[in-house]
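Exercise: predict the fold of this chain.
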Amino acid sequence: MSNLEIAGVAASLAVASSAAGSAMPAELALDLAASQYSTGRGLALQDERSMLDKLRSESLGFGKLQKFFDDPEIEEIWVNQPNEVFFAKNGRVDREFMALSAGEISALVERMLRSTGRRLDRATPFVDAALPDGSRLHVVIPDISRSHWAINVRRFPSKVWNLAELVQRQAITVSQASYLSHRVAEGANIMVSGATQAGKTTILCALIEQANGDLRLVSVEETFELRSTKPDWVAMQTRQANLEGRGEISLRRLVKESLRMRPQLLVVGEVREAESLDLLIAMNSGITGMCTIHANSASAAITKLCTLPLLAGSNISPDFVRQTVAECIDLVVQCEMTASGQRRVSEIAELKFRDERFELVAAAC
């Protein structure tokens, strides 16, 4: 009996149990089917367990990629073409060659998207989705990509690190953690900046945890990445348009809707476009705000934040944006990843606005 046949037996068991009025979980049905097969063939316990692990990966997990998901130290997985898988582990990139066909790749992506409600086809050649374990999936298909499906899976630690734990991990110094703790308690508006994979989301989550536990937290993101243990927390993510081109929910729409939800701390996972204007307006109305932004330095982050709101329309003037940024942003926390793969806070700067000019003053080291 092949793996496919065992999976078929498992499906039959699940259907039979459902017909009897007690739905059997797919994993239990697979265990029973594998047990029946092992008993009939007289397999040793070790062989049965090995076969069952393989079956679970192929039937319930992500097939040949499942072992990368099972390794908690792997931070990102990407596939550029069949037979080759790249992955980042502890800040370092490695790759592995494996027998992975184009058909298997498309089947794996279909399985990943099954629980997300998002689609991938010629009309929609890109997809962003959150997997059940919280990982972020991004896929591009030809003819947007040259020849093969391009898959990226960004994984996030299930644990929410607080500032004290980040000090132990040497991601932040004691003086930086102490300073940020005081500023968060004061209700400072904070922007976390850095390059891709610099640890921005980890720092942002730690700052959220440092906030008063009684605050009502509302977060908005393109796909769910933020983590928090706050009891009063509403998390929202964007939605793509349906096949008819309707139903899209943008990040800007979510920021506007969040203002009707009594937020005391509003967090935007990442500001990229015109939603930056709505976040600044919210901060200017007395709501504490936090966000991340892609930038190579604290100074570049401020420059970028003064530019993005102009995408909201021609009626938005640069002078208005500069003044609003000056009144709203208190701190910029710059993150970086060193050549050794260590992620750390490289700079914390207070924003000052004097004589129509921005000044960034080092706050802690």
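Check your answer against the key: The CA atoms of residues 120 and 127 lie 6 Å apart.
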